[in-house]
Amino acid sequence: MAGRRLRLKCFSIPKSIWARLFIAVALLEVFAIICIESYVIKRTANIYKYGTESQWGFGMQNESSKISITQQSFIVYDAMFIVAQLFLLMLCWEAVAHKNTIQIIAATLFNVMCLAYALIQYTTFYIRPSASAGIFQKDNDMRVLSITTMVVYSLCSVAFALLSWELYQMFGWKTYKKLGANLKLRRAYKWHQILLTLLKLDVFFFIAYSVQLATLVLRVSDPETWVQIGVVIPGSVVFLVLSFWALKVEKKRVMIVVIVCLGLSPAYFIYKLVRMNVGVAKATDPYLDSRKYLNFFVSITLGLVLVTVYASIRCYRNFGIGLKEAIADYEARKAQLKASKALEDGGGPDAGPMSTVRYEYADVHERFELD
User: Fold this and answer.
1) Are 133 and 196 in a shared domain?
2) Residue 30 sits in the same domain as residue 109
3) How many CA atoms lie within 13 A of 97 on its CB side?
4) Pair 123, 169: CB distance under 8 Å
5) Could you tell me if 66 and 160 lie in one domain?
6) What are the transmembrane regions (predicted)?
7) pLDDT tens for residues 186-236?
8) 122: Cα within 13 Å, side-chain hemisphere
9) Total domains in the fold of the chain
10) Which residues contact 20 (CB under 8 A, 6 or more apart)?
């Protein structure tokens, strides 16, 4: 029985009904969106495969813009929903497991961003359709699926907001008490958690933007395509992993490099915004069907980068005040207390002596309660 409880705790989900409801909503949303988008992808692929002059008009070329309708253009949008849902589930699970109220709020806001992305897709297909996206107006089933996607995101956003408030009330006072009564360490830890959350969001938006740009706009013959795929995407991942490491071990020189590079990156995103929206000839517009999506991702990424730069500076100023040691000390004592509790629950000849050890860590148990 004890072994079963230990396996359950490996998922690190607190016993609170609010925490479990939060994860349940995330799981239900993931299931619903993946089912909807998988069907849409399959439907799109089948029509391309079996129909050239179907009710959607696939295979036809828009004479005014000279742009052919491509299967990949539509499938990439739907695949982004699936990837976003998996990322959201990771955010929610990790936030609840670590009782991280900052990441819980971030997960809620991310879900609202997914709703905004679904709204952009619906607008592009049905309200102000572009040359090729206008074909979706002829398919009522696809319209219903798009509306269903927005309804799912809307309902889950409301649920996340309500549950986030309850979790904030429940976890808020526990979040920083591991550091004791030192207010300076508490403030430093808050910015530490904010930066960690921002870096996770940066990873998603950097990669999502680059993949969309490379697959929807750039061409094989365009050198920028290979720079995007071979340099920008892996380089962004390596850079952000380096940022995580610099924050964890408090490497000041590395963090300075991170701050400088992040501080320079807004120039690139502003350049892309200008290039996509100013002086583009309509007849040869490569952003005709993807402009709204890319503008959305570039704008969000630009805002995240600016906030990340500010949070990085705040964390850099807190290096060396004892936060790293306090977190390491907390984790060590927590691991020892868990080991003691596991041996106690398991019984056996060592159960008695371990009770003494547990009372030696009564101070730790009082400062954070094991779930």
Assistant:
1) no
2) yes
3) 11
4) no
5) yes
6) 21-41, 74-93, 105-127, 147-168, 194-214, 226-247, 254-274, 294-313
7) 888 889 889 999 999 998 998 888 877 777 766 656 666 666 666 677 777
8) 16
9) 3
10) 13, 14
